[in-house]
Write a structure and sequence with these properties.
Blueprint lengths: L16 E13 L5 E16 L19 E12 L4 E12 L2 E2 L24 H11 L1 E2 L2 E12 L4 E8 L7 E9 L2 E8 L4 E8 L2
Antiparallel strand pairs: 1-2, 2-3, 3-4, 4-7, 5-6, 7-8, 8-11, 9-10
């Protein structure tokens, strides 16, 4: 507050200690000529061991954001010369991301998803409002499937690609933010683009 007028501000703080436990693994194989298969996976389990904020409050129970527990991806690519002048490349890929928190707040306690002056909605308690906000700022696990076909002409001087993104048309949110704005509490975010198809022509000269 400046001269009695409320203003927005940003407070940056650092945790004293965080423990991350996890691993990553990758695999690439060529079972037959021209075909390449790839797979990778990752696991991480982070937690705050110690976190006292600027007010002296222990907030180590807050959620660590944008860290899915599990991730994995699969892809296949096939390349072949159709003739002396024409080449073909086809590829598909699938990536999956586990549930993760998009905001640090929790339903109750320090760094809570509600305020003492928040207006109850439809008879809900502050803790219930907080849980609703936690749910709204928790991004669901999701998998995205893409594909591409590319034809090259004259040593790839000319290329035509036919492609599709998010072919399963997953429209779930991929980002969400809690906005603590009394007397209401809001969650805003973004949803994924719908299934998209297209063609790309490239000329190299």
């Amino acid at each position: 507050m400046i001269n009695g007028v409320p203003v927005n501000n940003t407070l940056v703080s650092n945790a004293a200690k965080v423990t991350n436990i996890g691993f990553e693994a990758e695999l690439t194989a060529r079972p037959i000529p021209h075909l390449t298969l790839s797979a990778n996976t990752g696991y991480v389990h982070p937690k705050y061991d110690s976190f006292i904020d600027a007010t002296g409050t222990d907030v180590r129970n807050q959620r660590i954001i944008f860290v899915p527990r599990w991730t994995y991806a699969l892809s296949a690519q096939y390349e072949h010369e159709l003739s002396d002048r024409v080449s073909f490349t086809g590829s598909v890929d699938y990536s999956w991301t586990d549930t993760f928190a998009a905001d640090r707040c929790v339903a109750t306690g320090p760094v809570s998803c509600w305020t003492s002056t928040a207006v109850d909605m439809n008879g809900l308690t502050a803790a219930q409002i907080g849980q609703n906000i936690v749910d709204a700022t928790t991004i669901k696990a999701a998998g995205i499937f893409n594909a591409r076909l590319t034809f090259g002409l004259d040593d790839d001087n000319y290329r035509l690609s036919l492609w599709g993104r998010n072919l399963t048309d997953n429209r779930d949110p991929f980002q969400a933010t809690y906005l603590n704005a009394n007397p209401r509490n809001y969650v805003g975010g973004y949803i994924r683009d719908p299934a998209t198809y297209g063609a790309t022509v490239a000329v190299r000269f």
